[in-house]
Amino acid sequence: MANIFGSLLANGYHVAILGLDWSGKTSVLYRLKLDEYVNTVPTISFNTEKIKCKTGSAKGTTFKFWDAGGAEKLRPLWKSYARAADGIVFVVDSTDKDRMDEARCELFKVTQLQETKGVPVLLIANKQDLREAVGLGFIEDALSIAELRAQQRTVQIVSGCALTGEGFEDVLGILGEMIEKHRKLLKQQKKKGR
């Protein structure tokens, strides 16, 4: 897998899309790719899509997304998808208050790996169109985002709805800026280390 990912890094960004089952990861992926809602089924293993951004601050940038299944038995595989990632998109179901603690645990497991040290995380609070959706403040607290940021990790949260497309206007632009900022930081650290 490392060889596949290594060749992608030269031509764009490698991004792992992660999150619990039923959070809407695959719907988010196809919203970003096609700018329309695609009715999906639970991901059994993974999906991969290459998306060339056509607008905004990331125009012309190619993103290679690896959408890993979120079922509990598949989560140990997340390490394989995230280990060479330039960025991680973590999708949360904003209506599923009962599983926020589980989502926090899984987010911390993947971000505490040596292979993902410092990799920026874009958290997408999906399903914000639904009446029972909780706000970004609730999600930020429930997922202990302040703790991740205290570990010198870039984390940004966007509110959205994969069904309607609301909130997805510049997700790729935001993600691209986060990744570029991280790459510049890594270059500066290398220069200082010489």
Helix % is 25-40%
Strand line-up of the largest beta sheet: 2-3-1-4-5-6
What is the string of SSEs from the N terminus onward?
HEHEEHEHEHHEH
Please, how many helices?
Answer: 7
User: Given the C-alpha coordinates, what overall shape results?
Assistant: globular
Beta-strand fraction estimate: 15-25%
Low-confidence stretches: 1-10
Beginning-to-end CA distance, first to last residue: 30 Å
Mean pLDDT: 88
Main structural class: alpha/beta
What's the total number of strands? 6
The profile of the biggest β sheet is: 6 strands, mixed
Round the Cα radius of gyration to an integer and report it.
16 Å
What does this 3D model show about the protein?
Helix content is about 35%, strand content about 20%. The longest helix has 23 residues, at about 170-194. It has about 190 residues and is of the alpha/beta class. It contains seven helices and six strands.
